[in-house]
Fold this sequence. Notes:
Blueprint: H1 2-36, H2 39-58, H3 63-69, H4 76-108, H5 113-127, H6 133-139, H7 143-167, H8 172-195, H9 206-240, H10 243-256, H11 258-278, H12 283-319, H13 327-337, H14 339-345, H15 348-353, H16 358-382, H17 384-393, H18 396-408, H19 414-437
Amino acid sequence: MTSIKQLAIRGTFWTVAGYGASYIIRFCSNIVLTRLLAPEVFGLMGLVYVFITGMHMFSDIGIHTSVLQNKRGGERTFQKTAWTLQVMRSVVLWAGCCLIAFPIAHFYGNSQLLFLLPAVGVTTFVSGFYSTSLYNLGRGMEVKKIAQFDLLGQIVGVVTTISVAYFYPTVWALVIGSVISSIVQMLWSHRLAIANKQPDGFLLDRDSMREIVSFGKWIFISTILTFFATQSDRLMLGKLLPLEVLGVYGIAFTLADIPKQVVMAIGSKVVFPTYTKLVDLPRLEFRSKIKKLRRLILVGAVVGLALMISFGDIVISILYDNRYQDAAWMLPIIAIGLWPIMLSSTLEGALYALGNPRFVVLGNFFSFVFMASGIWLGFQIWGVPGAVMAVAASNIPPYLCSLYGLSREGLACIRQDIQATLSLVGLVLLLVYGRYLVGLPLTLPNF
């Protein structure tokens, strides 16, 4: 148990450090690129990634999660089967990107999508050949090496994108940077495999396939619903709004999303692998371990999100030019809505570890229904501000469904959630009052 605790602490440190470095790089590159590229470029690329993400999620059978969760996940036969399925999936994904390009370009009335979707889809093809060495890093909770791997790809992508954008300031700068980053990461993953004497190869073991597909059916359903729950905003806003407004929304969402992404990274790279090692404990002891593991994570989440809600608009106003100033009022609204997801992301890993993710699936379904109807209704009543508020509110259903599932398993941490929520509200009120005292009014939307 001490060893697991040390791994969790070390993993949390490197996750936070890795994401901290990652977001510093992303933030700086974002500022540079907004000087080089027009808002509609970001809107167009954001729309492309909605469909690329959709292709990924519509074919996800939880290969990576199966390797982490399954007791046979460390066997080479199991891993080679997983890798073979991963490669087969990547080929289908790229073919799918090519097939949907024409109807999507026609629907949105933008001929650039006809070429952008297949081009960006190359990244999905390349990522299918990532080595199983990444699975083993996850199983061993070697978060430092995972962070280094992610940062390598990001740095290569950023340098490439900025260099191309400087000489050729179009959406293709973003495409080229993304493709080059994927290729470098794929090659690096196999370098890790060779160093660890774990080369990949094609193999389809019947028992391994059966176990992966059996567990993956819930992941498959969950990821499809997750796509609609998390990407419906861009799908609908891409039709309702001009591309430049969609690009401004994307900037606001990306910045507001920083604290949530850090917490979710800890959830997937540290919390979930830890839960898989504790899952055989009695329920009361398991719940006690969950509460201890979450405590410091929630403290950091409260501080990070409170700062984003209270001062994010100032960051936008200072660092971005006039074309992006509407992001200043969007950012705090989006950030407020991320709190339920930050709570559930540190808990739902227990449901996956128990092999019972159906309540997560149900939450994603209700989130999609809430978002799809809410965006339309909010836009009809209050325009863009109403739609943004609907996006923020759509994160409540997944938390409630996960909470119900955890209650049935005797693992809910309701009191801890209430305490963390009250701490967040109190800290935000304190920071906003401080703004008022120094004469910094909040940035409000124009209704």
